[in-house]
C-alpha cells in the first residue's frame, strides 16, 4: 500500500508519541494534535488521508470534531473510545465515523483497521469507467464525473452516499435488502451494522429534497429493504 498521511488527535501525550512512532515504523507519514481545535486546523491546511480521533478530548470533544470533519472536510475517521462501545459506536456511525477501536487496544488491531479503511476509501475515490450514466426520471448520475443532478440541479454527495444512490437507481423499482446494500457499498467487514445504511438513506432523502408528506424517491419496504422509484421531470 502506498504511504498514506495519518493525523492522530489524542490528548494523551504518551499515547500520541507511541502511536506516531509505530505508525511511522509501519510506513505512514504521521502528524499529531493534542486537541480537536488544533487537529481541525491541520486538516484545513493540509488534509490527511485518514484521521485517528479520540472521543474524550478537552474543549471540543471527539464527537463534535467528527461532525465537523464529516460535514465540511470529507476525511475518513477512525474513532478511539474508552467508553461503552455500543453507545459510542451508534452515535459515531450516525455522525459518519468509518470505524471504532476501543481502548486499551493492541497496535496491530489499530493498524489492521487503518489499512481496511484506507483500502475502502481509496477504492471509492477510484473512477469506475465501466459504469454508464444513469438517467432515472428527474435524476441523472454520471459516475465518471462523480456528478448527480435532480431536475438539472447539482446535488453534492459523499462517496458512499453516491454509491448507495447509484446502486439503488441502477436497480430502480427493485427492492434491495439492507444487508445487500451494506455488503456492496461498505464491504464484508461492516456486516451486522445496518444502522450505517439507515443513516445514509436518511441523508440521501434530505439531499434529494424528499420532504415529509411526499412519496420519497428512496422508499422503505418494511422488513425487506429499499427501492428507488423515479420521479418524472
Q: Give me the secondary-structure category.
A: alpha/beta
Can you write the helix and strand succession as a string? Answer: EHEHEHEHEHEEEEHEHHEE
- Total number of beta strands: 12
CATH topology of the largest domain, which one? Rossmann fold
Alpha carbon gap, first and last residue: 45 Å
Summary tags:
233 residues, Arc Repressor Mutant, subunit A, 5-stranded parallel β-sheet, Rossmann fold, alpha/beta, 8 helices, 4-stranded antiparallel β-sheet
Topology, please?
Blueprint: E1 5-9, H1 13-25, E2 29-33, H2 36-45, E3 50-54, H3 62-73, E4 77-81, H4 85-95, E5 99-102, H5 107-125, E6 134-136, E7 139-142, E8 147-150, E9 153-154, H6 159-170, E10 176-177, H7 178-185, H8 195-208, E11 218-221, E12 225-228
Parallel strand pairs: 1-2, 1-3, 3-4, 4-5
Antiparallel strand pairs: 6-7, 7-8, 8-9, 10-12, 11-12
Helix pairs in contact: 2-3, 6-8
What does it look like?
With 233 residues, the protein is an alpha/beta fold. It folds into 2 domains: 5-125, Rossmann fold (3-Layer(aba) Sandwich), CATH 3.40.50; 134-228, Arc Repressor Mutant, subunit A. It is built from 8 helices and 12 strands. The strands form 3 sheets. It has a 5-stranded parallel β-sheet, with helices on both faces. The chain has a 4-stranded antiparallel β-sheet with strand order 6-7-8-9, with helices on one face. Strands 10-12-11 form a 3-stranded antiparallel β-sheet. Helix 2 (36-45) runs parallel beside helix 3 and helix 6 crosses helix 8 (195-208). The chain is elongated and about 60 Å long. The protein starts with a strand and ends in a 5-residue tail after the last strand. The mean pLDDT is 84.
Amino acid at each position: 500500500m502506498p504511504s498514506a498521511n495519518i493525523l492522530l488527535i489524542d490528548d494523551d501525550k504518551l499515547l500520541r508519541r507511541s502511536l506516531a512512532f509505530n505508525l511511522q515504523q509501519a510506513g505512514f507519514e504521521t502528524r499529531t494534535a493534542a486537541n480537536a481545535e488544533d487537529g481541525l486546523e491541520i486538516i484545513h491546511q493540509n488534509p490527511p488521508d485518514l484521521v485517528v480521533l479520540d472521543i474524550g478530548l478537552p474543549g471540543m470533544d471527539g464527537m463534535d470534531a467528527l461532525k465537523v470533519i464529516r460535514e465540511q472536510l470529507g476525511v475518513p475517521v477512525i474513532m478511539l473510545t474508552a467508553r461503552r462501545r455500543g453507545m459510542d459506536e451508534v452515535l459515531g456511525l450516525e455522525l459518519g465515523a468509518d470505524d471504532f477501536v476501543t481502548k486499551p487496544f493492541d497496535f496491530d488491531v489499530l493498524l489492521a483497521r487503518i489499512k481496511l479503511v484506507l483500502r475502502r476509501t481509496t477504492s471509492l475515490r477510484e473512477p469506475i469507467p465501466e459504469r454508464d450514466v444513469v438517467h432515472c426520471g428527474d435524476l441523472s448520475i454520471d459516475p465518471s464525473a462523480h456528478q448527480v443532478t435532480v431536475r438539472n440541479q447539482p446535488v453534492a454527495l459523499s462517496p458512499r452516499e453516491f454509491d448507495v444512490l447509484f446502486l439503488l437507481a441502477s436497480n430502480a423499482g427493485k427492492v434491495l435488502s439492507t444487508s445487500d446494500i451494506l455488503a456492496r457499498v461498505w464491504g464484508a467487514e461492516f456486516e451486522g451494522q445496518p444502522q450505517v445504511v439507515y443513516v445514509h438513506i436518511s441523508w440521501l432523502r434530505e439531499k434529494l429534497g424528499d420532504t415529509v408528506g411526499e412519496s420519497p424517491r428512496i422508499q422503505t419496504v418494511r422488513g425487506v429493504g429499499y427501492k428507488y422509484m423515479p420521479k418524472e421531470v
